[in-house]
Design a protein that fits this description.
This protein is α/β, with parallel strands linked by helices and about 130 residues long. It has a domain at about 60-125: Nucleotidyltransferase, domain 5. The protein is about 30% helix and about 15% strand. It contains three helices and five strands. It has helices spanning about 15-30, 75-85, 105-115, and strands at about 60, 65-70, 70-75, 95-100, 120-125. The protein has a five-stranded mixed β-sheet. The chain starts with 13 loop residues before the first helix and ends in a 7-residue tail after the last strand. Its main location: membrane. Keywords: Cell membrane, Membrane, Protein transport, Transmembrane, Transmembrane helix, Transport. GO terms for molecular function: transmembrane transporter activity. This is Biopolymer transporter ExbD.
């Protein structure tokens, strides 16, 4: 009576997977405690009620494509660059504050026009909410 032996099935490496997950857990627990916790007696300043104001020499673009500089409406990107040149403001760093409803293709067109007119770096200013 000869019985056939079943072929042995390869085991899945579950122990190795558990070890990796455990090591990741330890790593993130240690990495999370590297920064000292904030003193509970310190109350942070709340800036939610402060008035938002664009930085000076910034091109503000509204959702309809209207451009403003220092609260004054301007007709085009070239008029914006001309104003900066007249005020002896360098074109090395140009900041754009777009409305969140401005179509992306309009923002890209404005950036392309600024580059063509000599802007070296273009920064898009956005809002970051910290909670």
């Amino acid at each position: 009576m000869h019985t056939k032996k079943r072929p042995r099935m390869a085991q899945e490496p579950t122990i190795a997977l558990i070890n990796i997950v455990f090591l990741m857990l330890i790593f993130f627990m240690i990495a999370g405690t590297l920064a000292p916790p904030l003193d509970p007696q310190v109350n942070l300043v709340e800036t939610a009620a402060l008035e938002g104001r664009e930085p000076p020499d910034t091109l503000v673009v509204y959702a309809d494509g209207t451009l403003t500089l220092r609260g004054t409406e301007i007709t085009s990107v070239s008029a914006f660059v001309d104003r900066l040149v007249d005020d002896a403001t360098p074109l090395s760093d140009v900041r754009i504050v777009p409305d969140r409803d401005l179509p992306a293709h309009k923002l890209v067109k404005i950036g392309t026009d600024l580059r063509a007119l000599g802007a070296e770096k273009i920064f898009v200013v956005s809002e970051r909410e910290i909670q």
